Amino acid sequence: MAHAAIRVDNLTKIYNIRESEDEYRTFRESLTQAARSLTRRSTRKSSREHRALNDVSFVVNQGDSLGIIGRNGAGKSTLLKVLSGITAPTGGRIEMRGRVASLLEVGTGFHPELTGRENIYLNGSILGMTRREIAARFDDIVEFSSVQKFLDTPVKRYSSGMRLRLAFSVAAHLNPEIMVIDEVLAVGDALFQRRCIDRMSELSQSGCTLLFVSHNMEMVPILCKSAIWLSDGRLVEAGDAHSVIDRYLGDLMQSSGDGVLDGRMHSGDGRARFHSVRIVDDAGVPQASIKSGRNLRCVVEIDSELAVPNVSLAMVVKTLAGTRLITSWTDETGYRLDIEPGRSRIECCFRDVPIRPGRQVAIDLWMHDGALLDQVDTAVVYDVVEGEPTWASLRQDQGAVLVKYDWNGSGALRTVDASACEESCN
Amino acid sequence: MIDTDIQPRNANPARLDDHQTLTPEADANVPGLRVITPSDGLLSVDWREIWRFRDLLLLLTMRDINVRYKQAVFGVGWAVLQPLATMLVFWMFFGRLGGIDHRTGSTPYAVYVLAGLLPWTFFATSLTNCSTALVGSYNLITKVYFPRLIIPMSTVFACLFDLAVSMLLLAVVMVGYHLRPTGSIVGSLVALVGMVAAATGIGSALAALTVEYRDIRYVTPFVVQIWMFITPVIYPASMVPHKWQWLYSMNPMVGLVDAFRCGLLGQAIPWERLTISIAASIVLFLVGATYFRAVERRFADVI
Predict the structure, then answer these.
(1) Alpha carbon distance B298, B303 (integer Å)
(2) Residue A140's Cα: distance from chain center in Å?
(3) Burial of A333 (0-12, 13-18, 19+ CB in 10 A)
(4) CB B203 within 8 Å of CB B127
(5) Is A102 part of the contact surface with chain B (CB cutoff 8 Å)?
(6) Quick one: which of A191, A116, A178 has its CA closest to A147?
(7) Facing A251 at nearest CB: one of B1, B55, B70
(8) pLDDT (tens digit, 0 to 9) for every residue of chain B, 303 residues total?
(9) Which of residues 132-161 of A touch B (CB under 8 A)?
(10) At A163, is the secondary structure helix, strand, or coil?
């Protein structure tokens, strides 16, 4: 009978975020503070609490695979860190059965000066393998990673793809009872991604319990039967992967609202903040949806108390599954922004947006002046609707991008009604 | 919309009736159960876990050694060159000009100072390297779990390798002066165990402190330097006035360095002082390791 491999009860993790200017505490500062607190009653409390995980409970049976989804900052990575024992929870309890291998970031056990061979041993032993176990699987690891030729080359000469392959191979051949994977596969090439997914399914079938964090909503259901959705550290929903993902995507849609970004998750130091983002048509009239094939004018308002010069700004149009469709970056067009105190407004015009109607897209915002000023992921979500009377299929599985195309051939091409296309596709 | 979708806590992907069969008795039968709870109270050193990760300890030690010598032009030569140069300087200024060489009895000052410098260099390098070891392993600590004590331990072991290499220098010098070790070398080994314990304890504490307070790393070399002068490295312990000996002996390194040297040079081991120093090092080790364990689960959050 299947038993619980992971049992999480009322898990809470609170971070104290320091609000002082320095990133790190110094001994000197602590001493002066201690001295001050002796003379004065009130000590300056220089931190505030952030609940990264709030009363999260779930159970994963042995051999199951669980997808963990949610927006950035929802607590997914914190959950994995607590589960792998890297950081201690503030409250609650976790019970786990079996050896845990966590791949939270690829190649962290690598030392650049050492060779691939030495690093396989080092990385394996960090993941908890003994030397004998590594030796027994050494050939499999090398074969899977296909870095045979470079085994005796220092890892610093490896490409990032080679490092990823090597690191994943080591972790995937550890034969762990529980495998915890955070968004690492996003780096690899498509072919290797495919092999990783195959390998993970294989592990999962052989009884390994899998926890998988991803923003790629297409990959999660391939690997995971069930999923949990985290939002602001809370467990919003748990259940069958497909239905949880549907609700999550639906929520993403709804929450973009009127484009004002007040209550949203901002990262960055906040010297300047995105206030709102809207789309307008060529006449400046606000729009509720993006018209395929037409210009997309995206208007961003930025609030700042100070002047911030030389800011580079980016907007990313992506599918809700997280695939980037268009990236626009001020630097690419040789442009930087000087933000004045108060509210400034900047517009980016994407010409003849070639996104297939019938989908939804999200916009990420990002600005940077050497340090990250602000970043809002999935700031708004819009439907893409036809801009012209449609000639194309609205089916979402027909690809995200739509360009006009012509067919030419030696045979006679017969003209058909566009609606016939829908029928023949079905 | 979200409100209606939030399910009660217990509506989990897994069937709860399954895990309800896991009574505490059943738990005990399942091997490899790991329970993670908030860290509070003092934790002792989990030797069993460290033993399980002994290969990692070995590999990290090898990595430290490997990387240090791979990158250096002189390779292993550094381990010899550094104490040799220091010995020459001390021999010149303190032995010749300072006149200490009349106070070391029958032993030539050069050998005397070298036999003290080697264990001291081991101890001092261990502390300095430990103080930055955790911060330098940022990548590992924030991304993978393993018993964190392995990091200061492997740092100390790598320094032990340096000591072994530099002992060859001492052997050459001793042959040059027609000195040979006697049975009292056992005392040196005992003292070495004490030094490893003290270095690991203090090193762990320093490593943990550096994670929390970044300025500790600037303090460490300074403290180490002062410490050397209150330890009989370049002068014999007997030079300290009798009425201060009790205070002087509070420093565990006094007994350890002294015994290490006596053992090598075939002199009588000051067993009484050595025993006290060993006891002090064990206490230092326990205090350091306990402090380390108390704060180690915070490392990933503050580093």
Answers:
(1) 8
(2) 30
(3) exposed
(4) yes
(5) yes
(6) A116
(7) B1
(8) 333 333 333 333 333 333 333 333 334 344 567 788 776 666 677 888 888 888 889 988 988 888 777 766 666 777 778 888 888 888 888 777 777 766 667 778 888 889 999 999 999 999 999 998 888 887 778 778 888 999 999 999 999 998 998 898 899 988 988 888 888 889 999 999 999 999 999 999 999 998 888 888 888 899 999 999 999 988 888 888 888 888 888 899 999 999 999 999 888 888 888 998 999 999 999 999 999 988 887 777 776
(9) none
(10) helix
Determine, for residues B297 and A88 on separate chains, whether the beta-carbon distance falls below 8 Å: yes
Alpha helices, DSSP H only, in A256-341?
Answer: none
Cβ distance B35 to A95 less than 8 Å, yes or no, reads: yes
CB contact under 8 A, B143 and A104: yes
Q: What angle do CA B247, B251, B257 make, to 5 degrees?
A: 125
Q: How far apart are CA B141 and CA A32, in angstroms?
A: 30
Residue B206, token pair as written in the block: 């320093």
B121: exposed, middle or buried (C-beta count within 10 Å: 0-12, 13-18, 19+)? buried
The length of chain A in residues reads 426
Evaluate whether B81 touches B168 at the Cβ level (below 8 Å).
Answer: no
Q: Are A280 and A299 in contact (CB under 8 A)?
A: yes
Distance from C-alpha of B125 to C-alpha of B284, rounded to nearest angstrom:
17
Strands A209-213 and A226-231: unpaired
ipTM exceeding 0.85, yes/no: no
Whole-number Å distance between alpha carbons of B284 and B282: 5
- Of A12, A96, A99, the C-alpha closest to A60 is A96
What is the full DSSP assignment across B98-161?
A: S-GGGSSTTS-HHHHHHHHHHHHHHHHHHHHHHHHHHHHTHHHHHH--S-TTHHHHHHHHHHHH
CA A206 from chain centre, in angstroms, equals 28
User: For residue A185, how far is the Cα from the chain centroid?
Assistant: 11
CATH superfamily assigned to domain A272-398: abc- transporter (atp binding component) like domain (2.70.50.60)
Helix (H) or strand (E) holding A231: strand A226-231
Report the CATH fold assignment for A4-18+47-252: Rossmann fold (3.40.50)
pTM for the full model? Answer: 0.70
Domain ranges of chain A: 4-18+47-252, 272-398
Answer yes or no: are the C-beta atoms of B265 and B115 closer than 8 Å. Answer: yes
Chain A partners within 8 Å of B33 (Cβ) = 95-97
